[in-house]
Amino acid sequence: MKNAESKRRAAPSFLAPPRRARRDAAGLGAISAARARLLIYGGMCVLLIPFVFPTWWMVTSSIKPASDIFAFPPQLLPTHTDWSTYAQVFKLQPFGQQYWNSAYIAALVTVGTMAVSSLAGYAFARVRFPGANALFMVVLLGLLIPAEVTIVPLFQLFRRLGMVNTHWPLILIPIFGAPSVFATFVMRQFFIALPVELEEAARVDGLGRFTIFRKIALPLARPALASVAIFTFLHSWNLYLEPIVFLSSAHMFTLPQALTHFTDAYGGPLWNVQLAAATLTALPVLIVFVVAQKQFVEGLAHTGLK
Amino acid sequence: MAEVLLSNVRKSYGRTDVIHGIDLTIRDGDFVALVGPSGCGKSTLLRMVAGLEAITHGDISIGGRVVTDLDPKERDIAMVFQNYALYPHMTVAANMGFSLEHRGGSKTQVAERVRWAAGILGLEQLLERYPRQLSGGQRQRVAMGRAIVRDPQVFLFDEPLSNLDAKLRIVMRGEIKTLHQKLKTTTIYVTHDQVEAMTMADTVVVLNAGRVEQAGPPLELYDHPANQFVAGFIGSPSMNFIAGTITADGFSTSAGAVLPLPESENRLPHGPAIYGVRPEHLALSTDSGIPAQVLLVEPTGSETQVTVQLGGTRLVCMLRERAALTPGSTVQLQPRVDSVHLFDAASGKRLGA
């Protein structure tokens, strides 16, 4: 009896250690979680360097005097700033015209690719015709052929059509070439995932094939179309090989091609001016990506590319 | 409203026949349920009526007009799909009015019809919402609203309640039946749930492997199943079947028990047969009957389901009274003789009346 009583009295002190232990464990847990988070963020910061540093170097070097760009040790922050490089960009080249060239070509290519890829993607996903899968494989094979292989025959073709030193090759090649094939693949994957019942309901509601595409499938494909638009625009904006093959006059140049023409009298690059032009070239792309980042990632997730 | 006629309708995918020549008449204003196990062809048959699936052979006519080669839009039908198929990018009102708008209805007319349908289905407060903002039951109602707004000749429902939970399914079952009573539009309703078919339909069509096993009013199918398949499919819990032989003394089971036969069946030829008795037609007694061992007792409150073993066969009894039975105990089975069904052992066809 005495024993039992003493056990009861001892109970609270007997229970106390586990409670404290739980509290300690919770405290330790919080500390280890914070450490883990710190490690993850630290790791991410390190991984960020190869992505952020080139942009940082481009922007800061564009306002450095040329001598400071190659100074050793390298200057991460410019000690002297020279904004005249930006004025030089417009003096040395018809940069405004070249900016417009790139912008309107990219816009036309984007709209054209969206139209072609959504129609082709829908047809490959929904219209049953003999050899559809084989044809789709043939279309996909187009992705495996490097641009360098087709550029000479394409040049011959456009020369015969009288389109050399015009913007037509830069518009038509991406719309009916590899970028459009990739976009068609993305759109096809999206349309395949769209419930067939929606289209059947539309058929019962009285819609024909094209109206179903226009009124049901296309509005629902907005996320996929957004990602197609972004990567097509980027591809066209950054296009380099085709412009240097097809264009020869400065006023016809697009931006990536124009960047290589900021040189001194001996053909050496004017680094700070060139980097200022590069900054101006990258700016709209950065803005578009920052603004449409969510849509872009969602689009990729929808299309099963993520 | 219209009569729907199916004459010798067949469907094949390559060499595989999935619908084997179905003849069916659905009267004007009837509520017909197509019921059967998965893969029996009930949804295919509905889709053939809708025009979403091509017919290999035969004819379908709606309201006296042959529609076999017509597009769905030309058949004057409306369909409610299993997953509702509401357009995600349109509001409830736009979903409901879409078809009318596409067919050239004026904005006022469309809005009026949408308001009318919304009033019937209690959707007035939801008209500006998007499908993603609705619950399962609300989506189901919108899908029905989209169907009724056009006032079609025939409603087609393809397992519309299978995505809802059990409670909501019962509520929506009532709503669909009420809607049919209000509108009197010819309705074809596909379900795999025989309770749904029994409770809702004027006529139940039982399908199996692409063939009609039996068609008729629900209680006729329940009381006079044409074959063992229908007898087993209609009713929950399903009918008990005991294999044995018809003899001069009655029905002898393989375990040696002799079950009573109705007097009307005395003229049946002696030989192997299947004895069918529904769970509610099997009484338990402690003094007289055929001895069987209790395996399981499942009280549901209103009734008690008792599973017993008779020879090698498990039988289910549904008792209205609360029975104090324990598993392992022996009870005496008393089949209600006038409710016994007999089927041919080889073909499964009903024997006698």
In short:
The complex is a heterodimer of chains A (306) and B (353). Chain A has 306 residues and is mainly α.
Describe the protein's architecture and organization.
With 306 residues, chain A is an all-alpha fold. Chain A has helices at 2-61, 66-69, 84-92, 95-126, 132-141, 147-160, 168-176, 178-193, 196-204, 209-220, 222-237, 241-246, 255-259, 271-302. In chain A, helix 3 (84-92) crosses helix 14 (271-302) and helix 7 runs parallel beside helix 8. The radius of gyration of chain A is 30 Å and the shape is flat. With 353 residues, chain B is α+β, with helices and mostly antiparallel strands. Chain B has two domains: 4-227, P-loop containing nucleotide triphosphate hydrolases (Rossmann fold); 240-344, Beta Barrel (OB fold (Dihydrolipoamide Acetyltransferase, E2P)), CATH 2.40.50.140. Chain B has eight helices and 21 strands. A six-stranded mixed β-sheet of chain B has the order 6-7-8-3-9-10, with helices on both faces. In chain B, strands 13-12-11-14-20-21 form a six-stranded antiparallel β-sheet. In chain B, helix 2 (92-102) crosses helix 3 (107-121), helix 3 crosses helix 4 and helix 4 (136-148) packs parallel to helix 5 (166-183). In chain B, 41% of the residues are buried.
How would the blueprint of this fold be written?
The complex is a heterodimer of chains A (306) and B (353).
Chain A lengths: L1 H60 L4 H4 L14 H9 L2 H32 L5 H10 L5 H14 L7 H9 L1 H16 L2 H9 L4 H12 L1 H16 L3 H6 L8 H5 L11 H32 L4
Helix pairs in contact in A: 1-14, 3-14, 4-7, 4-8, 4-11, 7-8, 8-11, 9-10, 11-14
Chain B lengths: L3 E10 L2 E11 L4 E5 L6 H9 L6 E6 L2 E2 L10 E4 L11 H11 L4 H15 L14 H13 L5 E5 L7 H18 L2 E6 L2 H7 L2 E6 L2 E6 L1 H6 L4 H6 L6 E7 L4 E3 L4 E2 L11 E7 L4 E4 L4 E10 L4 E7 L2 E7 L10 E6 L5 E4 L5 E2 L2
Parallel strand pairs in B: 3-8, 3-9, 6-7, 7-8
Antiparallel strand pairs in B: 1-2, 1-4, 4-5, 9-10, 11-12, 11-14, 12-13, 14-20, 15-19, 16-17, 16-19, 17-18, 20-21
